[in-house]
Amino acid sequence: MLLGAAAGIYVKASSRVIGAVMAFGAGVLISALAFSLTREAFDKGGVIAVTVGMALGALAFFGGDVLLERHGAKDRSRSGGQQGSGKKSRGNDNGLALALGALLDGIPESAAIGITLLGGGSVGIPMVVAVFLSNIPEGWSSSAGMRKNGRSTRYILMLWLAVTIASAISSLVGYVLLAHAPDIVVGAVQAFAAGAIITMLADTMMPEAFERGGARTGLLTALGFTLSFLLSRF
Predict the structure, then answer these.
(1) What is the pTM of this model?
(2) How far is residue 188's CA from residue 55's CA, in Å, rounded to a whole number?
(3) What is the per-residue pLDDT across 131-153, written as a single tens digit (0 to 9) for each?
């Protein structure tokens, strides 16, 4: 996240490049969800854990996203300066909404990394790669948009530093709180994270990727999915 935010400030890149990275990262993340997180959730908790967890995760993200949209964070991941353009977002009163929006996107992913440690003491490489590749363009796009909207470099970096720290803590919490939990509980939480992430992808990341990347978005998403799948097999 912090690398992406810094890139959005200091690196000049076209919208197509940002869209291409977003599309590739989305494909990687979808594959990691399907073949790592959701599969492990099913193995641990079965049909009920996956069904209930996915539904609750999707609803939680959807509800939080709706609330944030009403308070100025509708375009938090946009790179064209749309943040703060709405009536409710004028001035500096939408900073908290932007931060909460970034947390809403990042916490389920980070918690999922912590949860993957429960299986056998090692972090799932595909999941880490997927989260890394999805967060760089998200931070990049969002910070570039805030910069165009007049936010200072200090404000943007401090905001994303806080989000990065909070996400890291959520990864630790995801591991510590579930270290001795029953398998069905772990599976349900994994499914919850998966439901939130897949909803985030469809609601924020993939539309932005298509808008910026154009017709090649589908091909890059498929490439990311394939490479992530092959990575998970070795």
Answers:
(1) 0.74
(2) 10
(3) 777 777 777 777 777 777 788 88
